[in-house]
Design goal:
about 80% helix, single chain, about 0% strand
Length: about 110
């Protein structure tokens, strides 16, 4: 009975040792991946540092445009309201009459 108890304890310790070894290898792999990710984050941060002033300028310009949109919308509403009351007319014709294009003849097109 003592022999079986000692054998069970040895098997339990060997199982725990294997589990700890496996867990250590997983944690080592995770640590290596985190180091690689940290390097990638440093590179991204360096690239983003060059872009930040331009993004701030774009944001300022976007705020100016966004603040002007209600005013532009009001102008557009007045233009549309004024345009709907004007009578419809045909397309504008030049005072000198229509001109004949020679480009059609160069490609073999003849108008009738």
């Amino acid at each position: 009975m003592v022999f079986l108890t000692v054998l069970e304890i040895v098997v339990l310790i060997a199982g725990l040792a294997f589990f700890l070894f496996w867990l250590g290898s997983l944690l080592t792999r995770i640590a290596e991946n985190l180091e690689a990710a940290e390097e990638s984050v440093r590179q991204i941060r360096g690239h983003a540092g060059d872009i930040v002033p331009g993004v701030e300028h774009i944001n300022r310009t976007g705020k100016v445009v966004a603040s002007a949109l209600p005013l532009l919308y009001g102008f557009a509403e007045r233009i549309v309201a004024g345009a709907s009351t004007t009578p419809t007319r045909g397309p504008a014709r030049p005072a000198s009459g229509t001109r004949r294009s020679r480009l059609h003849e160069t490609v073999g097109y003849r108008s009738r």
